[in-house]
Amino acid sequence: MTPYVVDSSVAIKWYVAEPLAAEASRVQTGPHPLHSPEFLDVEVANILWKKVRKGEITRADADDILAALKVVPIAREPDINLIAPAFDLAVQTDRTVYDCLYLALAVQLNGRMVTADDRLVNALAPTPWAGYVLRLADVP
C-alpha cells in the first residue's frame, strides 16, 4: 500500500470542522500507512495558536487537540534527515522548506504527500515531483 505523507493542512481537519474534513477523515482511517516529518506537530500547534487568537476555538480545545494528535498512529520521521533534501527541493521548486519537508519524505518513501494546499499542488503540477503529491479533494 502506498504510504501517505500528511501535512498540517490535512491533520488540522481531523479535529476542526473545515471544508474537506470528511476527506481528511478518510485519509486518517484508510488503508494507507501514514507518515509525516516531526515538524507536523509544530505546524499544527501554530495553526491552533492562530485559531485561539482569532477566537475560533478555545485554549482548552487547542490543548485537547494537541494531546490527541500525539497519539495518532502516524510515523513521525526525524526532521534532521529531511532538511537537506527539503532544501534542495525548495530551491528547485520555489516552494518553502516547510512544505518541502513533506515532499522530501514522500519522495524518500516513494509515497504521496496529501495536502489541502491547492496552491502547492498547482505549483508542483508541471514539475517532476507532481506524482508525489495528492490533493486532499482527490483522495479516493
CATH superfamily: 5'-nuclease
CATH topology: Rossmann fold
- Give me the Rg, rounded: 14 Å
Give the overall pLDDT as a whole number: 96
Number of strands: 5
- Biggest sheet, spatial arrangement of strands: 3-2-1-4-5
CATH structural architecture: 3-Layer(aba) Sandwich
**Number of domain units:** 1
In DSSP terms (H or I, runs of 4 or more residues), the helix count works out at 7
Q: Which class do the helix and strand fractions yield?
A: alpha/beta
Q: Tell me the series of helices and strands, N- to C-terminal.
A: EHHEHHEHHEHE
Residues in helices, as a percent range: 40-55%
* Major beta-sheet overview: 5 strands, parallel
- The end-to-end span amounts to 14 Å
What percent of residues are in strands? 5-15%
Short description:
The chain has 140 residues and is of the alpha/beta class. It has one domain (4-39, 73-138): Rossmann fold, CATH 3.40.50. The protein is built from seven helices and five strands.
If you had to describe this structure to a student in words, what would you say it looks like?
This protein has 140 residues and is an alpha/beta fold. It has a single domain (4-39, 73-138), classed as Rossmann fold, CATH 3.40.50.1010. 51% of the residues lie in helices and 12% in strands. The protein is built from 7 helices and 5 strands; from the N terminus they run E-H-H-E-H-H-E-H-H-E-H-E. Strands 3-2-1-4-5 form a 5-stranded parallel beta sheet. The two termini are 14 Å apart. The mean pLDDT is 96.
